[in-house]
Amino acid sequence: MLHAFFPSMLRRFAGCALSAAAVAGCAGDDSGRRAIVEIASAQRELGDMRRLQDGSARQLAELQSRMRGLEAETAGLAREMRSTAAGLAEIQAALRARGGPPAESPAAAPEAARAPGAEPAALPPVAQPPEPERLFASAQANLRAREPGQAVLELTDLMARFPRHPLAPAAQLWIGEAYSQQRDFRQALIELRKVVEEYPQSPQVPEALLKIGLCHRALGEPGGASAAWRRLASEHPRSEAAARARALLAALRGAARRSH
Predict the structure, then answer these.
(1) Tens digits of per-residue pLDDT, 176-205?
(2) In CATH, what class is 131-257?
(3) Cα–Cα distance, 196 to 209 (Å, whole number)
């Protein structure tokens, strides 16, 4: 509405200016010249107002884009928290598949009174989780503590020693995440692609495709990001990762339109 208002007002002021100029030319009237000066000043002010309006519209579009990006990032953090919980669930499932730690024994009967000076009975050793689960849990703790280098060492050890373990796809995914934390996005891409290529049936594949797109975006490669996210939305449309991929694709298209 304001855009329609400004040209109309400018045309009216221009007409007034011409009329005033005619009067001033014929009569040499000082008031006519003052009117022309005032109209010119009003036209400049209207022009300034229009430029301010255009600038405000651009700022609003940028803020909306940033809000969409923040919403996508918030959703990503929530999804990573769920992924961590899923990783713990995988550890528990792997423990159960291997027999798990021994169940707690029923409460023992009260210990009989010991003879004076007798040594107390030794406590039974605490059961330790199997090695793959221990490595995986330790690596996740290091990632949360922002120590990706140590996490990579532990996860790489897990993959080398237990390549067929149920935790292997998740471990490979988190190796890629660790390199992303270190901002080594090229190496992160190599590791994340292994999830897609070597474990194509794993539930970790949608998350890997999403992270592949994020690595491409961080490297300034929107074509690679778009390709990964489109594949994710096409092949895993019902996954949580696909929902975020669609939002990221929309933001990518919006940025491309604004740049042209």
Answers:
(1) 999 999 999 999 999 999 999 999 999 999
(2) mainly alpha
(3) 7
